[in-house]
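Fill-in record for Glyoxalase/bleomycin resistance/extradiol dioxygenase family protein.
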Amino acid sequence: MTEARESAGLNGSAYTPGTPCWVSLMVHGMAATQEFYGELFGWEFQPGPQQLGAYVRAQLDGQEVAGIGQLPPDRHLPVAWTPYLASDDVDLTAETVRHCGGTVGVGPLVADNAGRLAIASDPSGAVFGVWQAAAHLGAGIAGVPGTPTWNELVTRESAGVAKFYETVFGYEEEPVVSADSDYVTLHIKGRPVAGIHGVGNALPRDRGAHWMTYFEVVDVDAAVALVVELGGHVLKPAHDSPYGRIAMVADLEGAAFSLVRTSR
């Protein structure tokens, strides 16, 4: 992980291709989930595109930060936060995903006048979205409490899957040189935008490879206590790291995410 940084696309311009521009969560209980995240992060909600079912956009101080959608009752899919990576041409990106050994599960399709999207998985099975902006550029605010500040792929080993993302999105890689750490930071135009963490046999069997979203908070310990009070649970207790204080938690339906107070 790295410290929070200014993101492209926050000043009315499109995100640079490859940059995480949005996060979305598909759940069974929309009302309870909105209440949970509203209390935790101070989010308010407005309706969004409805092609994939009921969908709302979370807002903080009037700026859009994330999406929450309704899973069909008969779809027993894992409930997980999914990052969307910006693309100038989602059809070409989807074609490249397939060519490089990934899978496209949804789309590409049009989301009203907001843009075009696809949902794909990399060769390790981790799910991510691709977003080609039109009216909706993506998150309008970042780096403040209540917003996503980092996205990290947790996988068995970084080398092979890093090549996939490098080919599909044009990332430059910067490995962390350490005898006991397998970590690659992905850069766009010299700026770190995401990470890949190889954890070997510590990869959770029930989840497999997955993307983890980090949300900035003012006080990690207080936020963890609030998660528990709201009906969520703790996956990894709060602890200090070189990048700030971090904890991993899960919401009412088991969607895992991390809380971080980044070092400034």
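KEY FINDING: Confidence is low (pLDDT under 50) at residues 2-8.
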